[in-house]
Design brief:
This protein is of the alpha+beta class and 122 residues long. It has a domain of 77 residues: 2-Layer Sandwich (Translation Initiation Factor IF3). It has a 3-stranded antiparallel sheet. A hairpin with a 2-residue loop joins strand 2 and strand 3. The longest helix is centred in the middle third of the chain and has 24 residues.
């Protein structure tokens, strides 16, 4: 499977995602199974040195914060592309997991349940 990058178009809007197991105003009509996005990232030497300098002053280490945010977003977007390919309208029960594969190399996993939904009638 080719890597999915954030610049690829995704047909499932963020508003159709939830960490819960339902979407307000919609009824789940089909469960399409688990979908996931996996990203493995390493810290660069320059980023590690820059973060080391920032850590001397305390507070937020913005270099690592930005890396973490980009990685989570890429994993999330990859999950949405997988859901779209499965024919989903939405993804529920979304979770993240991260594991250090080796020193300085981290895997970030975003996963959830792909579902098809219909609008609830009043």
């Amino acid at each position: 499977m080719n890597s999915i990058i954030a610049s690829q178009a995704v047909d499932i809007p963020y508003c159709m995602t939830s960490t819960g197991f339902e979407l307000h105003g919609f009824q789940i009509v089909e469960n399409l199974g688990v979908v996931r996005g996996v990203v493995v990232r390493s810290r660069s030497v320059f980023g590690t040195v820059g973060a080391g300098v920032q850590s001397l002053f305390g507070g937020n280490i913005s270099i690592f914060t930005e890396l973490a945010e980009r990685t989570r977003k890429q994993a999330f977007d990859t999950m949405l592309v997988q859901a779209d390919r499965a024919g989903a309208d939405a993804v529920i029960g979304i979770r993240y997991d991260a594991n250090e594969l080796m020193k300085g190399v981290t895997e970030v996993l975003c996963y959830g349940t792909a579902v098809r939904v219909e609008t609830l009638e009043d």
